[in-house]
UniProtKB/TrEMBL annotation:
ATP-binding as UniProt keyword: no
Coiled coil: none
Phylogenetic lineage: Bacteria, Pseudomonadati, Bacteroidota, Flavobacteriia, Flavobacteriales
Superkingdom of origin organism: Bacteria
Protein name: Prolyl oligopeptidase family serine peptidase
Record-linked InterPro entries: AB_hydrolase_fold, Peptidase_S9_cat, Peptidase_S9B_N, Serine_Prot_S9B/DPPIV
Amino acid sequence: MTLSLRILSVALLASLSGFAQSDLSVQKIMQDPNWMGTFPSDVAWNEQSDVIYFNYNPEQEVSDSLYKINLKNTSEIQKVSLDEIKTRVSSSGDYNAKRTAKLFVKSGDLYRYDIRKNQTRLVLDLGERISSPKFITDSEYAFIANNNLYVYNVDLGQIQKKTNIQSGSSRDKDSKKSEKNQWLEEENLSLLEEVRVQKENRELREKNIALLEEDEYTFYLDKQRAFNFSISETGEFLTFQTYTPESGDNTGVPDYIDASGYTEMLNARSKVGDQTTQRDLYLYHIQKDTVFKVDVSSLPGITDLPGYTENYPDREWEEKQRAVSFSDVKFSSQDAHAVVAIRAQDNKDRWISLLNLDTGSLKNLDRQHDEAWIAGPGIGSYYGGGTLGWLADDTHIYYQSEATGYSHLYLHDVDKNKQKQLTSGNYEVFDPQLSRDKTSWFFTSSEVHPGERHFYKMPVMGGKAVQLTSMEGNNKVELSPDEKHMAILFSSSNTPEELYLKPTKASAKPKQLTEGQSEAFSAYTWRTPELIQFEAEDGAKPYARLYRPEENVNNHAAVIFVHGAGYLQNAHKWWSSYFREYMFHNLLTDLGYTVLDIDYRGSAGYGRDWRTGIYRHMGGKDLSDQVDGAEYLVENFDINPDKIGIYGGSYGGFITLMAMFNEPDTFAAGAALRSVTDWAHYNHGYTSNILNEPNLDPIAYRQSSPIYFAEGLEGHLLIAHGIVDTNVHFQDVVRLSQRLIELEKEDWELAVYPVEGHGFTQPSSWTDEYRRILELFERTIGK
């Protein structure tokens, strides 16, 4: 009897060893991220280059606090006192020519910081908010207040107003009274003596004011608002932009869990195609006391029609000047030149142009055109931004362009009108910055591998770029002001970011300064996913992260994860912003699943053509990349073709819906989280890049929106969404749910999260959502 029990026990243990188990659980993974430990972020140096500041949370408080490490004792991590935080110098501001002092604004007041003495003093408290401080000389400071340029002379203690920009209209533009109102006023004046006297006095005051101001130029904004003020280096020129506030419809999102007990409507956003706002650029010439409106009509191709119009031959298209947006104007050191980047609001063109400071006219230097949309590292977006500036010689500007298919750094000699490309190859350049002496470049690039980021130094006119970092992963470098040290936030695919210090030399060794992983987090052996490529149907080779289970637990089922944002990179060698999903993939792999995480068409990190591969058809190549990934798993890793699931959030949720509706033979189950279901209901800045506007290009919207394909659902679908999502509105999945109901579809469910927005914040919500995802896969493909 005893022998029989022992034999049975051994047999039972042997059989159990084939069942997948894990030290992980959904509840463990999705708890407050503090369980993982504390990891540094937002690194900055002090002006003396001997202290590194960063956000950190070793005490496990509700949120991170500011900490510092002094280079004299790098083993000691100190929490920054509240008093030091209050007196800390702003990271933004303007330096004097010798870089011994800095002007900055804090709480709307102007301060000067003496770098050598490490002393800060209040310069001006006007009771009005000050912005854009700038050294004109060591004793003259320019700034913006109340939409006007002022110069403060320190020696004289005087403030001089340099411009006269006012809201409203000039008196001679005041609207004329209607005939009825004119009659009423005349009757009132004839009947009431006091009214007549008051009017005469008012008119006399206005006449006297007009006499005083007749020699002073005034620029009236009318109904527009001014923003983006740029002060020239000498203070003799000011540029500013204007726009008319939008009057279109704005969407609202209901919040049902408000403390008041009533439903509160949250203001959200407009929808794509709502009337775009015309922006204008003005040049204020101080000496001439006049303002020039910058005319863009001379820009090459400004009236060109986009290529998609050819798909609508029955519609009449008018070649007219397109609306544009402007970057900040960049002035050369002695105001000899100024340059501005201009972007068409239909996203097809970007112009780099010289701005004539005597006339306000433009001379175009470089036109960047893309029939899809202009974007990429250092190029900016619908909202502006991008790399642009002057070299020390005041004749060369620098900028980035995707002209070769990858974003690279360029120079342009404005005197000779000659362009020079400084970097080249099948990689991208990020965040180029000039050295303090302006003889070298520092920048980050992906030259080593698309999934790595390294920091480089290169001569200012081009040449060999020296790689200054070597750790395999992502090296986020914050260079010290004296450029002698690099503070590096480094991470690999299975280790979160830690802070390192390294001299700015290729041969130097980095020193790790923080070690924030908790015992609970480090107790598990987190996988380093394989970084692989597979061939897509059109010959392209997407990168992907691959997680493979041990053979003894392999259930021959696969899950494909679709990252969000669209333009984002996730198949790389550093710690993912999708860290919860990364941990979930480790859990799935423990349970026997093979997991594939693809940088599909539209993802960041692979150049222009990869980015624009989804133009006018989201759910085209980005979806076929998922299908090809599934076929790759079947052919190479013994995956059962009937046991493949897919999931993702935001853009990943959208692709999941398109997969479940259009590729039912490939995907048996899917979980679509915070998904866009109809792109005509999403925002303008993101959507118009890729699909144009729905009233102008309805074909693109209909072939890209899941709600039009819902009849194709055959598998098991989980839809999850936060009710107070002000980005992708809950309305999206409500409309889709009604569509599925009308189609009498089965095997789908909707999970709602009453207190969650687009990015969940509550561990209980994360846990519930991913418990449902795991149960879906276990029930449908994991058996």
